[in-house]
Amino acid sequence: MSARTSNFLDNKSVRIFFFFLTLVLGVIYFVQITTVSSRGIELRNLSKKQSALANETHRIELFIAEESSAQKLQKRVSELGLVTAGKVEYLKADGNSVAMK
User: Fold this and answer.
1) How many domains does the chain have?
2) Which residue, among 87, 66, 90, 62, has the nearest Cα to 76 in the 3D structure?
3) How confident is the model at residue 100, as a pLDDT?
4) pTM
5) What backbone phi and psi angles, to 5 degrees, belong to 30?
6) pLDDT tens readout for residues 40-91
7) Structural domain for 43, as ranges
8) Residue 61 phi, psi (nearest 5)
9) For the chain, what is the largest distance between any 2 Cα atoms, rounded to a whole number of angstroms?
10) Crossing angle, helix 12-67 and helix 3-10, to 10 degrees?
């Protein structure tokens, strides 16, 4: 090392400058790592929530399909005491169709 480089690094204000520069860069690095880490945790939580919602949607779709089956509908019709409509006649009144039993 030359004497000039040695004198430059021996200067107290230069050492303080480099110390604070290192400190500031360290803090910036720490903040960046913390931000990335928290975003990763948030992303993982949202992914779990999305999976749970997809499972819930699938469960609801299965329930709807089951409740819409012909056997379930026929059972519900008989439970409500509904009867099958007999012959339905349509009348024309002012160009609109209406039903009459």
Assistant:
1) 1
2) 66
3) 58
4) 0.51
5) -60, -45
6) 999 999 999 999 999 999 999 999 999 888 888 888 888 888 887 788 877 6
7) 3-100
8) -60, -40
9) 114
10) 70
